[in-house]
Amino acid sequence: MPREFSILALLLFSLSVFLLGPKSMTSHPAQTDISAKARQLHFSSIVIDTHTDTTQRFIDGDFDLAPRNEKGSVDIPRMKEGGLDAVFFAVWMPSKVRGPIAVERALKQIEAVHAQVNRHSNDLVFATTADQIRAARAKKKIAVLLAVEGGHMINSDLAVLREFAGKGVRYMTLTHSGNCEWADSSTDKPIHNGLSPFGKQVIAEMNRLGMMVDVSHVSDKTFHDVLAASKAPIIASHSNCRALCDHPRNMSDDMIRELAAKGGIIQINFHVGFLSQKFRNAERADPKINQAIGIEVQKRCGNKEGCQLIEGDRITREFVEAGKLPRVDWTEIIDHIDHAIKIAGINHVGIGSDFDGANMPFGMEDASMLRKITDALLQKGYTEGDVKKILGENTLRLMAEVERTGKQLCGESK
Ligand SMILES: [Zn+2]
Hints:
There is one protein chain. This protein has helices at 3-20, 36-44, 55-60, 76-81, 99-119, 130-138, 158-166, 197-209, 220-229, 253-261, 272-275, 277-285, 287-301, 305-321, 331-344, 371-379, 384-413, and strands at residues 48-52, 86-92, 124-126, 142-149, 169-173, 212-214, 235-236, 265-268, 349-351. By secondary structure, it is α/β, with parallel strands linked by helices. The strands form 2 sheets. Strands 1, 2, 3, 4, 5 and 6 form a 6-stranded parallel β-sheet that branches. It has a 3-stranded parallel β-sheet with strand order 7-8-9. Helix 6 links the parallel strand 3 (124-126) and strand 4. It is globular. It starts with a helix and ends with a helix.
């Protein structure tokens, strides 16, 4: 900054403090704090995020959860600042990775999550049940849970699914952005007409294992087939409302209603391309923008997938700052939560950020900012009990129901 300019800026700053008082100088969104009531409520609630992609960073080899990291959205200090009590780390790889290699890579990621928990056992504890999340919270530790994002990783083998469950995986997203061998994705050409006969066996086995069935990413037909097949309520671990942003990956009001009618929950995703119609339109209007982002990601990261996810978010933000893409503010998360509650009811909505795997809106850059959601929901008129449900109690209720169904089914099959 040129010297003259900085002196001028200092003068203007002093003048504005004199005229407006020091309080107005702290109104930058990143510095705005929440009300005392919101703080008290947030930090006395159990806060659960059902979807983050931080796992990819563990296997890049140079990432650790303990220090406050300059990049990305999730680490222990920022989870603590955001009052996050339980986090699901997703095991992920592109849908095109198939066969024994997919299984091998998934197992490696599962071990990487366990290794982080073991390394930081003062702050973290591995959990697989709703009760274990409550127990972790009582010990002031963050519960870490495992998810598998994409049915292609079981290599069409129920024994692999059982192995994943044995290692603590608590939900499986049936597909990622491409179809798997037995279920159609919302962003691929349908080939199974929803869920194949083997797909139905997968659902039955997940029900028996007490593993949540996740319908984020799946096609509408797959969703309906799963809803009909599953004996336990289902989760959309990181999905948004199509009524607010018309993306095939988001859920229509009818789907949200049907999900809730069977006891399920929709966990609202923070990704700008799923939150904002304006952003989606801009992306679609000029495909060269995404191509340019892709090229820059490749330049910065090569084939390191964890790096690609983090840099993709940073580069998208640079494009927004350069005026090439519209700015999306974090308050649009609240719009989706609010809409989903109007459709599904207060007992069927929660949070699944997609941190470290998607493009975050301004003001919700990392896990430390989760507390702002509590403040905004109170301001919108939600009661303290309502807010607790959204933050985590709905997820705990669903987990307990799925666990109960699993035990019942195991009892029946004995
Ligand atoms: Zn996803």
